[in-house]
Amino acid sequence: MRRCFIFAAGTYYGLRERPRTGDLVLAADAGYLACRQAGVVPDLLLGDFDSMDQPADFDRIRRVPVEKDDTDTMLAVKTGLEQGCGEFYLYGGTGGKRLDHTLANLQTLLYLRRHGARGYLYDNDFVWTAIENESLTVERTVEWGLLSVFCLGAPASGIDERGVQYPLTKAALSAEFPLGISNHILEDRARVTVRKGALLVGWELPPLGVVSEIK
Description:
- The protein is an alpha/beta fold.
- The protein is built from three helices and 14 strands.
């Protein structure tokens, strides 16, 4: 399954894994600065360049109008899907000066899932993904590591959480109450199941100790 690495213009916390030969690397607008900091050359830089000037020393560029329905990150996601990618790793998709873009990128995880792909959005020592009508196994990488689960859209039901401090069995979650926040993974693996609906699932990663504001 081809992988796609997307660098967006939020806060870049460092790479968890470097792209390999055959992976698609996309920079969304000022995410190009994060690519340079990581020492990664993108296959394509796309965006409306409202958060940085278009670089003069890079020619693989797709410039789009400022007035459009898609965010620059969503354009990168759609490009990755068009190229047949099934796993997406999003860096610089949180933090920065724009909470609205963080929320948009979290929603984008569900867009990916509904288009047959899996997206991982990296925050500061945390990673997020979306699941819908399925199960997800999470490896414990931090002792007493955090696990948070939120309803993503309409009320979700038939939710199980196993291998955690506060297990759930056929529970329901809704968007107006954050019942699933700040659980802890106790076993080597935790398992989250939702039988009806969509969930946003995030878990703690080992610290990298790298924080850099891109904008």
